[in-house]
Amino acid sequence: MQQIGxxxxxxxxALAQLPTTSAVFALYGAEAHAEPYIGRTPNLRARLARxxxxxxxxxxxxxLAGRVRQIRWRLTGSEFESLLMQFSLLEKVYGSKSLERMHxxxxxxxxxLGSNSYPRIAVTNxxxxxxxxxxxxxxxxxxxxxxxxxxxxxxFLLRRCTEELEPNPSHPGCVYSEMKMCxxxxxQGCTDERYAEEAAAVEQFLATRGESSLVTLRAQRxxxxxxxxxxxxxxxxSQVQRMESxxxxxxxxxxxxxxxxxxxxxxxxxxxxxxxxxxxxGRLSGPAGxxxxxxxxxxxxxxxxxxxxxxxxxxxxxxxxxxxxIASKIAENDFDSSSVLCQGTTSVVTQMPQTERGALAPEGSxxxxxKGTGFSPYINPERSQGALAPEGSxxxxxxxxxxxxxxxxxxxxxxxxxxxEARMEETLAALAESSGATTATLRQGHLALLKRWYYRxxxxxxxxxxxxxxxxxxxxxxxxxxxxxxxGKMMTAGNRD
Length: 497
Prior knowledge:
The protein is α+β, with helices and mostly antiparallel strands and 497 residues long. Strand 10 (273-280) and strand 11 form a beta hairpin. Strands 1-4-2-3 form a 4-stranded antiparallel beta sheet, with helices on both faces. A 4-stranded antiparallel beta sheet has the order 6-5-7-8, covered by helices on one side. A 4-stranded antiparallel beta sheet has the order 11-10-9-14, sandwiched between helices. It has helices spanning 11-15, 44-52, 79-94, 97-101, 142-153, 175-178, 192-208, 211-226, 230-247, 324-331, 404-410, 419-434, 440-454, 476-496; strands at 2-5, 23-29, 37-41, 68-75, 108-112, 121-124, 135-139, 255-256, 262-267, 273-280, 283-291, 295-296, 312-313, 464-467. It has 4 domains: 2-75; 108-209 and 250-255, no CATH class; 261-314 and 417-496, no CATH class; 316-413, no CATH class.
C-alpha cells in the first residue's frame, strides 16, 4: 500500500497527492494502538476530502482531520477487488468481528448426512470441514437451499424425518410413508441395502446437480424410443423434464465444498492487465496481473468473441535490413534489380521507400528518375524464392543471395501456439502457491464474498468466473477468452472516459 503523512493544518497539500480513482484506504492516528479507519471508494481524493476537510455547509458530517496523521491506500480495478482488500485489512485488525462489520453471513449449504445409519439431507449454514465432501453449495439464500432440497426429495424416496431411527415393525410411520414418498426404514419397510442404494443416488444427484440421473434417464428414453415403446419413452421424458426443472434451482456455483475451485477475472488497476483471482482450499488468492500486451483482443469495442475463436499473441516480425552494397547503390542512384533481396518467399522488399507503382526508389526520387536504371517496377513471383537475379543467371552463385536455410535462420522464430496457455497456467500455479493457512474467519469471509458477487444480477456483476473440470484441470482456453472479453470491456470503458 502507498502512504503519505497528513498534517491537519495543510490538508489540501496531502489531498492533492491522492489519485481520483477507485481504492481501498486506511487512516491511522498518532497513537500506535489506535484502530485505523478502513474504507473503500470509487474516488479516493473526493472521499478523503469529505472526511478530512471540515465543511461549514455540512456540520454534522464525520470529520477525522484532528485524529489522522497517516494515509495509506491501494488502487483497485473493480469492486470485487475492493471488497476483498477491505476485508483483508479489517480481518487483520478486528479478527472475527470483521465479518459483522462487512455483513458477511455464513452461506447456506445442503448437507448430506452420510455418516448416519440411514442418511438424510439437511440445510445448514455451518458445514463441517471434516465432511466438506458432503456439503453442497453455497446457495443464494437459505430459502433457495430449502426449496432445492424439498424439490430434490420429491424425486427420490429418502426419509425426511430428523429422528435417530431404530427400525421396528411396530413403528407407526409417517405421512410420507403412507403417500409412498419414503422407503419407510422406520418400520422396516425396506431392506438396509435398498435404502443405501437410494441414499447413494441422492448423493450423486447432489454432487453433480442432477447430471448423473439425467444421463441415465436420457439413455433409457432413447432406448425406449428405438424400440418403439412410446409409453415408456414418454414416462422417461416426463422424468427428465422434472429433473431438469429441479436442476435449474441450483446454480453452477453449487458443488461439493471440498471441490469448489474457481478462477475469477476482474478489471485491473494497472493498464494492460487483467486481474486474476483464485478460489481454492477455502480462500481467495490474488490479484495476479495477467498482461494483455501483444494479445489480440476479441472485438475491442464490444468485448465479444465473434471475430476470433481463440485469443492470439502477436509477436513483432523484424524486417530484414537491406544489404550494404544495395544501400550504397541506392544512394548513388546506381540500382540494379539483380542485387535486390527478398525475405522468404514474399515478393516485397522491406525497409525501402516505394513509388506510386510499387517499385522501390531512393528517398526524394520519383518513378521518372528511375528510368534507365535497369530496375523493373514489377517483380516476377516465379523468381521470388531467395534473391531476384537477371534472367539466365544462377541465383545460387550470387554473392548477395542468401540460401533458404540462411533466410530461415535469420528470421525471428514464430510464437508457439501454447504461449498464452503456459502463461495462464503459471499465473494460476503462482496463486495456488501463495495461498497461506486458512482460518475459520477467512474461510467464511472469502466464501461469503464470492457468493455475494456471484449471485448479483447479471447487469451488475462485472468480471467472469470459471470452474475446474471434473478431472481437476482448468479450462485454460476458456479462461483466456474471458481475459479477452474483460480486457475489451476495459478498453471500451476507457474510450468512454
